[in-house]
Amino acid sequence: MGLFVIYLVTIDVELISSRINKLHSLTSYPFQALEINAEVDEETVAEVFTRINSKGVTLNQSDFILTLISVFWEKGRREIDNFCQNAKIPPDAKTKDSPFNHIIKPVAQDIVRTIIGLGFKRSRMKDAYAILKGRDPDTNKYSSVLRIKQFEVFKETLYKVTDTTIWHSFLKIIQSLGFKSSGLIASKNSIINSYIFYLLGRLVYNVDYKELDRLIAKWFFMSSITSRYSGSSESIMESDLNKIKNAKNGNEFKDELLNIINSSLTNDFWNISLPNDLLVTSNTISPVASAFFASLIYNGANALFSDKKVCDLYDPTLKMKKSSLDKHHIFPKEYLKNLGYELTLINQITNLTYLEYIDNIKISDTSPKTYYTHIKDKYFKGKEAELEQSLITHGIPLNFYELDYRTFIKERGKNISIIIKKLYDSII
Fold it and tell me: pTM of this prediction?
């Protein structure tokens, strides 16, 4: 005999009726249209467009600038969009020139910011919008003659910014530090603003290319690990640009940037701020986490307990359902949960490192001493020195399995800070 289950559903007739009526009323919804006389000049059309959009869709100043470009230089707007689109698509064998890369996929606003930074040494987009509209900074009045002149600067700068030879020369600097893919980039602003300074150093101040590479590597590293552009990025970048505006030559340009770098990466930063940041960071795409993982790649490190390189396992071109490389908990998650630790503490960067997926499965939720003894006896018999070096490379105390968890993450935080600083020092 079959079993029937009857569900009782309460129907709100009035609610359904109300919603149907609202849906039906859409047929009589009044849409407003603004018709502009064909004789109106282009500047007025651009002004009307931006004003209407600012009342509806939330737009930023970059959007307004892009609107101006669409009106006064449609070809340039297409070139910006094409560059951004091509940066996302792997080129085929016949393509000779492409901005595609594995670090950053720029959008139109990024290119606009770079052009404004290089061409006008400005960062605030509201000021850039006024400049492109032709506002005289002394009288605050608008001039079509000045607008045309400013657009010529914009046009000339666009071709420099989107020169793929220069673009890839810059990206190679970032990659050389171990930041091999977008997954290790914690802040796009750090990339874009570093590119602006690279362009200024190369095209305006004519800094020797080897010196410039080292300088920009240090600048990117500093701005990334300190989250320099994570807050009021436009204001901070405006301040940074103001500091180099009066530089008369390449040496003065370098000195200004180095002053900012050295005032940011002080001894207190390395010895106090960075270790403390590591103790409260559980986000694996945080600046300090990215710097550590990039350090492993830069140093040619093997994955923990493995003979495979982290850089090989972290290949952005490989697309797999399950990564062959996991960020593994050194003190296993379930083991710590059973001891009463909260997830925020368990998932600290100081408790994570790269481990091959198969080893991660084997370790599971056993105690550190249990799994470490097993790995040592089974895979490193007679190779104890190699095993110890693997721990040192990953900043793991040699006696980690004997430490209580809080002591372990504190000690490893200090070790990771040293590893990151060695990467920075190697730039010199």
Answer: 0.85
